[in-house]
Amino acid sequence: MKIVASAGREDIAVVYILELDGGKWVECVESVQPPIPREKKWVLLVSTMFGCPIGCKMCDAGGYYLGKPTQEEIISQIDFLVRKRFPDGCVPAQQFKIQFARMGEPSLNNSVLDVLDKLPHLYHAPGLMPSISTVAPKGTQSFFNRLLDIKNEKYSGGHFQFQFSIHTTNPSLRDDLVPVRKWSFSEMSEYGARFFAPGDRKITLNFALAHGLPIDPEALLSYFNPEIFLIKITPLNPTYRAAENQLSSYINPLKEGEDYDVVQQLRSAGYDVIVSIGALEENLIGSNCGQYIRTHLLATKQMDNGYTYRIQEHQPEPDLEQ
């Protein structure tokens, strides 16, 4: 493995472009959430595909697709980030979150399950908490059935975070935004009821909310029990794809997050609601959800509200050990 390039700040987030042994590139991220120190929360994001075949209209990682990393290639990203910070493999963070969410739809790569099965044995990390975010493509039932078994065996009692990325309750707009055959709300609800067990974290319904993409609390209540599901609302991060598709964020990252009518409506319907607004600097670094440094490097016209950090190129030698 070689470091091709990186961008960011050690006290917020660093994105790495890595060339794996087969010559393909992936991106991975390590981040903290100021003012929370790394000893309390440390977050890694790793790629589960070389590109992504889905092509969501706000995501820069969907411009190409070159296949699926193996179990070893996914672990190599995690191991690179861990050993760089903690060479002995002992991760002291009270919450050590690994998100399989930098690039690719995790449910389309069964190697993700092999990684999850093996992960607790790779490091001394009492705070380990994997996180899977999915649009729930059709044809992935076997993946999610095995995921449920792995969660129950190795990550019960609140040590796993599971998220459906929905973005709007309007079916036709959802299909336009995420152009792939997907589970219905009914199928998501049924799986969630099987997945959730006492002591688990509630399942997240994520909305990267854009103008013109509604959230109807009554539509959600028809399928998603507030005792099992919570709502997370985030800004739509600045990406080339979002700009190309004329999508703009409903959530103003400069505004206090609790001050939106939709938040109050969802809470009145009985849902726990998290308005998640990270450090604005992450947009400039390019480490946020939907952002992808490779797209920025290939762009002919640069953005002024994202990807503004200098990309530091690295010498290809020497090779890093796996």
Q: Quick gist of this model?
A:
The protein is 26% helix and 20% strand. By secondary structure, the chain is α/β, with parallel strands linked by helices. It has one domain (2-313): Aldolase class I (TIM Barrel).
Describe it.
With 322 residues, this protein is an alpha/beta fold. It has one domain: Aldolase class I (TIM Barrel). 26% of the residues lie in helices and 20% in strands. It is built from 10 helices and 11 strands. An 11-stranded mixed sheet has the order 10-9-8-7-6-5-4-3-2-1-11. Helix 1 packs across helix 2. The longest helix is centred in the N-terminal third of the chain and has 15 residues. The chain starts with a strand and ends in a 9-residue tail after the last strand.
